[in-house]
Amino acid sequence: MNERIAIIGAGIGGLTLAAALQRTGHRVKIFEKAPKLGEVGSGVGLWSNAIACLNTIGIEETFWKKFGCEVHSAEIAEPGGKVLSRCDVRPLTEKIGHGAYVVHRADLHRALLGKVDPDSISTGLSCTGLNQQKDGKVRLDLSDGLERRFDMVIGCDGLHSAVRASLFGRIHPVYSGQTCYRGVANLNLKERHILREVQGRGIRCAVIPLDDERVYWWAVESAQEGGHHADPSVQRAHLLALFSGWSFGLPEALEATPAESILRNDLYDRPPLKNWSRGAVTLLGDAAHPTTPNLGQGACMAIEDAYTLSHLLTRYEISGHREAFSAYENLRKHRCNRIVSESRRFGWIGGWRSRAAVSLREMILAATPEALVKRSLEKHISWESP
């Protein structure tokens, strides 16, 4: 095959797509705006649907055993230490045939880079525009001022995608009303293999072991958009006060995390697009369907997108890219839009503040049968490949 495909963005979705396409003989060029490749210092949860896709590009079971903490159960608890809802996920992962893991994003990023031809990656270059030519090619304009032409361009450049803006206009994403802090701490928790969210009044958190020595933690609060603390030590002190006395390890994880390494990101999504593609250009992952992280499916959806699109481009080849893009959207849009909607709703419920609303939420969680929780979870983590 002689296709020349430009991938904008070398995150998890872009690298998964590049690895999958290169395995089937496609010629790919990846452009990343960051001056050097790497990932932020946080964790990422990967459910069975994502593991199944990553296995096809050579991320083998040995990687998960070495770098991942397998999830055996999922829980929701209240700050005083009472578990309100518990679900054993192992029967589901065994049924699907792939486990679920939490890994450090940097470890996953390195593994994906190992599956991609290093000569196909250019860093320090951002997309400044694109133009579809009469001959069907796409002229790609990059920040170095040079023009390049490709058979197709795929935007994997995230929430504020320049490719999306070129296709559909630059529109600010929708702020959820919540902001998320994340970090990795050197801390040995006795409990492992539990994915537990602790929900309070308008705030919630989780502490998840990565291995015997490190944990990944996150904390969410309702906050004004863009209200970042300039001083990292003030930010950490704010979190320590906010979650003081909480069970399940967050105060301890905060104390063990260097203040300057704590990340803060406001949480956004976008209304669904009618189409993700125009001509020889399409979108993938957060560029197409950004979601809040409340269901742990953001990276998983990008990985599913990448697997599906690579399969279809191989099937239809370059002359049939319109058919491939159409099939890609038909296979992906309903599932992704549902995840975005359900994640937004889960975050809204988790952000309830009044005592009456929180009491109602806790009563519902405690009364919900585990079988019902499993059915809902299975809908998210099982997936039929095209």
Share in β-strands? 25-35%
Helix-strand string: EHEEHHEEEHEHEEEEEHEEEEHHEEHHHH
Distance between the termini: 21 Å
Number of helices: 12
In the predicted model, the low-confidence regions spanning at least 5 consecutive residues are none
In percent, how helical is the residue content? 25-40%
Structural class: alpha/beta
Q: What is the arithmetic mean of pLDDT?
A: 94
Strand tally, please?
18
Q: What about the largest sheet?
A: 7 strands, mixed
Q: Which word captures the global form? A: globular
- Rounded radius of gyration (Å): 21 Å
Q: Trace the largest sheet across and list its strands.
A: 6-5-14-15-16-13-17
Summarize the structure.
The protein is α/β, with parallel strands linked by helices. The chain contains 12 helices and 18 strands.
Brief descriptors of the model:
37% helix, 12 helices, 5-stranded parallel β-sheet, 386 residues
Walkthrough of the structure:
The chain has 386 residues and is an alpha/beta fold. The chain has helices at 12-23, 48-56, 61-67, 90-96, 105-113, 162-168, 232-242, 250-255, 298-316, 321-350, 355-367, 370-381, and strands at residues 4-8, 27-32, 43-46, 69-70, 73-77, 83-88, 101-104, 121-123, 127-132, 138-142, 147-150, 152-155, 174-186, 194-199, 203-209, 214-222, 263-269, 281-283. It has a seven-stranded mixed sheet. Strands 8-2-1-12-18 form a five-stranded parallel sheet, sandwiched between helices. α9 (298-316) packs antiparallel against α10 (321-350). The longest helix has 30 residues, at 321-350. The mean pLDDT is 94.
